[in-house]
Amino acid sequence: MSNDRLETILTAAYACFTRHGMRRTTMDDIAAAAGMSRPAVYQYVRNKNDAYRRLAERLFADTLDQARRAAATGGGELADRLHDVLAAKLELTLTLHRDSPHATELLDASGKLTGDLVEAYTAEMTDLVAGTLADAAGPRARAVADVLVALTRGLEADLTDPDLPRQRLRDGVALLVAGLTSPGDHA
Asked: Which of 41, 49, 66, 73 has its CA 20 to 30 A from that of 9?
């Protein structure tokens, strides 16, 4: 089986899910958008839910790759690296909201269809943030990472103005990093 064909199907599935929502998208829609027959699409995905799950896997993997690259920029300031790692997560949600009037439905579906993927993605993102914080936060790195990931999740709750959560993320990371480096704060 061709990875290129699977990518074509997942790109078509994204277009269909964002255009029609999860409930109204059909396998015929996905096949038409992919420029393939329905039987050909079934060679790569079992059904609409499988297409959704594979799409989520791809989106999470791409976001984690972007976050890893941001964390690896060794020469940058800690606040900038942390912001860029967490911005990758925030931008995934902002993109979905920008691309679809059905974003809420799609995110609800993700809880049902991809809850385990979301959990693994969140854990890996938290590990990445903790690793980025390791030198500055020492043994508190995991706890601080939990707070930063929770902050990002909270910012994803209100996306009426997409610039506001971006600015709040930058401000929140700056405040937290300043607190890590403040004199006498080694408890």
From this structure: 66
**Predicted confidence band at 123 (pLDDT cuts at 50, 70, 90)?**
very high
Q: What is the pTM of this model?
A: 0.91
CA atoms in the 13 A half-sphere facing the CB of 119: 6
Q: How many domains does the chain have?
A: 1
- For residue 45, pLDDT over 80 is answered with yes
Nearest to 130 by CA among 115, 111, 143: 143
Domain span including residue 120: 49-180
What distance in Å separates the CA atoms of residue 42 and residue 46, rounded to the nearest whole number? Answer: 6
Query: Residue 9 and residue 26: Cα distance in Å, rounded?
Result: 13
Query: Of the candidates 45, 44, 91, which has an alpha carbon nearest to the alpha carbon of residue 65?
Result: 91
At 78, which CATH number? 1.10.357
Gyration radius of the chain over CA positions: 19
